Amino acid sequence: MRGLPSPLVAPPPEDSPVRASPAEVDLVALLAADELSAFLRLSAAASCGPTLADVRGLARIAVDHLGRHERAVDHLAGLGVDVEEALRPWRAALDAFHRRMAPSTWGEVVVGAYVGDAVGPDVWAALAAGAPPATAALVRSVLGPRTPDAPVPDGSAPDDPVAAFAVPALARVVAADPQAPGRLSLWGRRLVGEALGQAQGVLTARPGLQELLEGPDTGPVVRAPVADTFARVTRAHVARMTRVGLTP
Amino acid sequence: MRGLPSPLVAPPPEDSPVRASPAEVDLVALLAADELSAFLRLSAAASCGPTLADVRGLARIAVDHLGRHERAVDHLAGLGVDVEEALRPWRAALDAFHRRMAPSTWGEVVVGAYVGDAVGPDVWAALAAGAPPATAALVRSVLGPRTPDAPVPDGSAPDDPVAAFAVPALARVVAADPQAPGRLSLWGRRLVGEALGQAQGVLTARPGLQELLEGPDTGPVVRAPVADTFARVTRAHVARMTRVGLTP
């Protein structure tokens, strides 16, 4: 994340009981912190839902994120990691991000849930592809069916419950306010731009994570796997925005 | 609730497809609204937890409330009730109550979760005792083991997960701030006083609910079952406050 001191977590001492590399711990801790942040953000935003169905729909999505958080945290604890310590820097950075990108309308809440459900997970899934099998499997199981190996044409996961909530919710917002699509399209572009900027900051602050994407640094050349990942995430974002009638 | 116009929900027309009395609908709708309010309030407050364990502990309690809300709503929908319509007045009244009683410290959040988890449910359980069997069974199943027929000596339910969270969380608050017990005792007294005042307002606004406690109104005499219920709720509250080292 921007402004993160590097390295935030010192490498474990020789006699560390932690049974994973620092990059694996960072990846799962980042995922766990992102899922907890999603729970807290979406459950707080649910109270702004214009109908009870909207409130409950977003609340259910929030609860799903808490379950994912708990699976990631259980995995970390099983590796001997101090969970509180491992999540602290990511929680602070995510909180700062979401304070900066706080939604001001229900439409922005819905777009945030919909876009945020995709951009971060697409990046974590790409990082997991370079991690040892146990960590890769955990990340995939936490994220569900959305993985870079199994993209679907419109960038959403099959039977995506977030899309099932967001598509009709956004249709109602747009029906009530013909100006909404323009503003929400702009909001979606801001969100994805900020999120990818944050992801870039994470990779710069944590060379171990960057190596999960592309192997060890071999010089100041353009590192294609990061660019490839960001391009793929951006294409999926464009497809998802288009699916809900917004301009990516 | 105070300031509620009465009646808020007109009696159903003769040909109403709703298969329950207005009082039963009110009782289950009030329960459903209270559980949803608890989810929204506690999940939003969880982000103030001083440790990750506190955040997760309160988040889990919030999620449990959402599950109870959904069971109550499913029951209403099964009776042919327009759920959105039935919950609307209660949601507005509960929101107003909780805005007035917004906690300003983590200790107040924990006391609110602990006291709020008991006072409302004790009143709903007492009302359910006068309802037809199907509604009574639903309310008991939503509330869990805490019923007026099965009190436990300290006023908490057996294996009460809220107490399991609140007791150590409050111990940490008190260890860090020796002034906390005095302020939190006062906060607990305010909460229970306001909650019982709200409950009294509900019974006044909804004679049908009051009849669940004591049968039809027969004149302006003191109606003992309401006073009995409030006295029992207050005794349970005193025991619960004492259990966490606060002065009731």
Describe the model:
2 copies of one chain form a homodimer. By secondary structure, the first copy, chain A, is mainly alpha-helical. Helices cover 70% and strands 0% of the residues of chain A. Chain A has helices spanning 22-46, 52-78, 83-100, 106-128, 133-143, 161-176, 180-205, 207-214, 224-243. In chain A, helix 7 runs antiparallel to helix 9. The two termini of chain A are 24 Å apart. Residues 1-9 and 147-153 of chain A have low confidence and may be disordered. At the A-B interface, helix 1, helix 2 and helix 3 of A face helix 1, helix 2 and helix 3 of B.
Question: Could you give a short description of this structure?
Answer:
2 copies of one chain form a homodimer. Helices cover 70% and strands 0% of the residues of chain A.
Topology:
2 copies of one chain form a homodimer.
Chain A: H1 22-46, H2 52-78, H3 83-100, H4 106-128, H5 133-143, H6 161-176, H7 180-205, H8 207-214, H9 224-243
Helix pairs in contact in A: 1-2, 1-3, 1-4, 1-8, 2-5, 2-6, 4-5, 4-6, 4-7, 4-9, 7-8, 7-9
How would you describe this structure in keywords?
homodimer; about 250 residues; mainly alpha; globular
Name the biggest interface: A-B, 25 and 25 residues
Distance between the termini of chain A: 24 Å
Strand fraction band of chain A? Answer: under 5%
**Protein structure class of chain A:** mainly alpha
Radius of gyration of chain A: 18 Å
* Tally of helical segments of chain A: 9
Question: How much helicity do the residues of chain A have?
Answer: over 70%
Mean of pLDDT of chain A: 85
Q: Describe the sheet with the most strands of chain A.
A: none
| DSSP summary, beta strand count of chain A | 0
- In terms of per-residue confidence, which ranges of chain A show pLDDT below 50 for 5 or more consecutive residues? 1-9, 147-153
